[in-house]
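Handover notes (outgoing to incoming on-call)

Open items:
1. Sarcosine oxidase: sequence verified, structure written out, both below. Nothing else pending on this one.
2. Nothing else urgent.
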Amino acid sequence: MTARSVAVVGGGAVGLTAAYDLACRDADVTLYERDDLGAGSTSRAAGIAYDAYAEDVDVALAERAIERFRSFSGERDFRFARTPYLWFATEGGAAAGAIREQVERMRHHDRDVELVDAEAIRRRFPVLRADDVVVAGLARTAGTVDPAGYVDLLAAKARDAGADVRTHTTASVALDPPRVNGAAYDAVVVAAGAWTGDVLADAGVSVPVEPYRVQAAVAGGPAIPILYDATREYYARPHAQGIIAGDGVTTPVDPDDYDGEADDAFRDRIVERLRERVVNANVPIERSWAGVCARTPDNDPLLGEVADGLYVGAGWNGHGLMRAPAAGERLAEDVLGERDGVGAFDPTRF
Ligand SMILES: Cc1cc2nc3c(=O)[nH]c(=O)nc-3n(C[C@H](O)[C@H](O)[C@H](O)COP(=O)(O)OP(=O)(O)OC[C@H]3O[C@@H](n4cnc5c(N)ncnc54)[C@H](O)[C@@H]3O)c2cc1C
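Sarcosine oxidase structure tokens:
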């Protein structure tokens, strides 16, 4: 059988994984990244990964992603550091109700999660203040990764498998037949993160992907589990230099023109949140930054064929790194006709 020629647009976690998986299946792969590899959202991610999802389609992707993170762990400098994920509400009402319902549905999907109360949190994680916790879920299949390490590893694996990975090469996509910068391919995969809407618009394809800005910071602090406070909407994870934390304040932006520095109000919020939550917290902010994510109207990603020979993987709503190992693989399987796309994530659904 002749190898299929496939172009991948975007050298972030999703595009690099797709390039690797396509090349492993003997496709003739060219990846186009307009900047350095990982220069988009991936290098700015906090690196949290878990399989604690309630919907079956999300569970399938997340489970496979964690399985692959684990199998890649130890190759080159990449590590998946297994760490429990604790998410909690400090008030009754919608957030607390959602956690109870999520845990029940996750358990229905055989996720290793349980409901825990304040006393159990204090016993298990003495480093956390838990008096105000009304309800919490604890997921054990979770961990942290270094996004740059994932990029380096997948780029090396893609190249070893035969992919032509081109950096500082902007791709312009056209259709009939699928083309990049004038060269025809059997298929083109667009995994251009927050820029996906622009890249597809060039090809005359419209998708509802909204780019938005979010912020993160590295603070000093002790070893904590991965946290998400569903009432105050912030997260934190352990890190070699302490803690990485960020919050749910999002602002729609132009991904080519946004402030990549975090602002003082954000840093103050993070210090306050960590001081409230972490016992004896000494949490000076050591560095902070902003990055872009992208979401769709239903908050589910676009994953699959969007026009003849044109595939897309985008709109991860802040959860793209943790799903990249599975999303790239699914794109490769879909392009090569080994497996159908994920119905709920059909990019033509809007
Ligand atoms: C502060 C912050 C914290 C986050 N924390 C987490 C987390 O803990 N866990 C998690 O799962 N996710 C997290 N995310 C989200 C995660 O970063 C993204 O979902 C993920 O990196 C998306 O990967 P991607 O490959 O789709 O996109 P990107 O990494 O953005 O890659 C797309 C690439 O396409 C390139 N590109 C664009 N246009 C073109 C063109 N015309 N030609 C060629 N190349 C082009 C860009 O330069 C870019 O490198 C976080 C994001 C931010 C900003």
